[in-house]
Amino acid sequence: MLALNGLQIGYDHKVLATLPQVTAVAPGEFVCLLGRNGQGKSTLLRTLGGFLAPVAGEVLLHGRPVRSLRGVERARRIAVVLTERPQVGALGVMDLVEMGRQPYTGWAGVLTAEDRRIAAAALEQVGGAHLAGRTVDSLSDGERQRVMIARALVQQPEVMLLDEITAFLDLPSRVTIIDMLRRIAAEKGVTIILSSHDLELSLQTADRLWLLPGQGRFIDGTPEDVALSGAVGDAFNQENLAFSLASGRFESSVVAGLSVYVEGDDVATAWLARALRRRGYGLAAHPAETAHRITPAAPGRWRVDGEREAGNIAEILALLAAR
Question: Where on the phi/psi map is residue 292: left (φ > 0), alpha (ψ -120 to 50), or beta?
Fold first, then answer.
């Protein structure tokens, strides 16, 4: 449905990224766009939406160049949600959602019963039906983003472009919003492209990752393939932080000092290993490789070096530090 042909993105003739000769996105795909600041995420979204001309190539929607679409037709096909809070004062939530019908009502803005039904259904789909009687300025950040997504859905678009919309949300709200977007893509057949800094959550939820690692490159693939290629680490690793393929998250890359052998494979042992790595200990693969050994003593208790028992992770760390 959405085809990017020979696309180069940038501005003032400066190329930020060159995409493969043909990059196609199917209906219902949920794509997460990742990259450090300044690598072109917002530029790519603006180019996809037809708001910015590509340096080269073109963006096609059903075979038609997006920039050739007239404003009303483009608004019916492509919806955009941004990070910025809408400055709407005491406007009612339902009034804001219904404004998404403007491409169908024209400047007169006269809503039919069907328009109002579509708006109410969109608000319900994002889990915001209970917000209908509120004003926008009374909403939390997470509630406001639900309403803005509902407003975009009211346009009944084929493509939704969302730029860093979870940037200011707490973790539960980010998880809820991204899970909701994935569900909407699958149920409605809408192509959703979300730029995000939340790498670990994107790896867990996206159908595809688009990664802008810098130096004009563009990487496209399943989250697993992109991670296994080493591209995630190349793009985001820092001196003291590195992406771990084993855990799928960023971990301290400080060179380990003393090593410890940890016996066990339950959840508590995994968290103990995490605490040890954070404190700069290496994890030995075999007890013969280190003088320090932690073994289960009883449910919820460990034995350190065969001598002292500990009832929690803090006690284990204290015993190791004293040795």
Answer: beta
